[in-house]
Structures are given as C-alpha cells and as structure tokens.
UniProtKB/TrEMBL annotation:
<dbReference type="GO" id="GO:0006450">
    <property type="term" value="P:regulation of translational fidelity"/>
</dbReference>
<comment type="similarity">
    <text>Belongs to the SUA5 family.</text>
</comment>
<dbReference type="InterPro" id="IPR017945">
    <property type="entry name" value="DHBP_synth_RibB-like_a/b_dom"/>
</dbReference>
<dbReference type="GO" id="GO:0000049">
    <property type="term" value="F:tRNA binding"/>
</dbReference>
<keyword id="KW-0963">Cytoplasm</keyword>
<feature type="domain" description="YrdC-like">
    <location>
        <begin position="1"/>
        <end position="83"/>
    </location>
</feature>
<dbReference type="GO" id="GO:0061710">
    <property type="term" value="F:L-threonylcarbamoyladenylate synthase"/>
</dbReference>
<keyword id="KW-0808">Transferase</keyword>
<dbReference type="GO" id="GO:0005737">
    <property type="term" value="C:cytoplasm"/>
</dbReference>
<dbReference type="GO" id="GO:0003725">
    <property type="term" value="F:double-stranded RNA binding"/>
</dbReference>
<dbReference type="InterPro" id="IPR006070">
    <property type="entry name" value="Sua5-like_dom"/>
</dbReference>
<protein>
    <recommendedName>
        <fullName>Threonylcarbamoyl-AMP synthase</fullName>
        <ecNumber>2.7.7.87</ecNumber>
    </recommendedName>
</protein>
<dbReference type="InterPro" id="IPR050156">
    <property type="entry name" value="TC-AMP_synthase_SUA5"/>
</dbReference>
<dbReference type="Pfam" id="PF01300">
    <property type="entry name" value="Sua5_yciO_yrdC"/>
</dbReference>
Length: 104
C-alpha cells in the first residue's frame, strides 16, 4: 500500500530518503488516528517522536491504496479516506498512460 503524506516536512523527508516502510499510528483494531494528539495519547510512551509541521484539521483517515497488482494495471482500496477515490483513480490512469507512452 502507498500513503502520501499531506505534510511538507514528511514530503521533504521522503524526497531525500525515498519511500519509507512505516505502520499506522494506531494499534490494530483501534480507531484511526487522524490527529497527532491522538497518536501521542495512544502511543506516546512507545514513540521516539511524532512529526507534526502544523495544527491538523484532519477528521478523516488517509486513503490507503493496494498496489500489489499495479504491474497488471490494477489497484484496489483498503480504505477510502480523505483523498477521494476518483482523484486516486485519475492519478493512476495518468501513470498508466505515461508508462504506455514510454513503452511505445
């Protein structure tokens, strides 16, 4: 799955390091954490730190896309959240077209 952070600090970090393998910020089976204060309340004692570059107004969890069949031209969704499915689908279609144009 791929998550794209809506955070300038994390986007910059990923531009330097490349993709990061990380887990969700909530224990399995627990409600989604949509605010850094919730993460700190839930996991604070187990974390070395939390990246937060501004106050968060998020009330909806992230969209999580299953890309295991990307090479077959397919994606599916583990969860549709703050980024609507039609936006992700449009981006996926653009990427498929770019890949097709590079091959041809």
């Amino acid at each position: 799955a791929i998550r794209v952070p809506d955070s300038s600090v994390l986007s910059y970090l990923v531009s330097i390091t490349g993709p990061l393998a990380i887990t969700s910020a909530n224990p399995s089976g627990e409600p989604d954490s949509t605010h850094h204060n919730t993460v700190l309340d839930t996991l604070g004692g187990k974390l070395a730190g939390v990246v937060c570059d501004d106050e968060s107004n998020e009330t909806v969890a992230s969209t999580v896309v299953n890309c295991m069949k990307f090479d077959e031209g397919l994606i599916s969704y583990f969860r549709v959240g703050c980024v609507p499915k039609d936006i992700v689908d449009n981006l996926f279609d653009e990427v498929k077209k770019e890949q097709s144009d590079q091959i041809n």
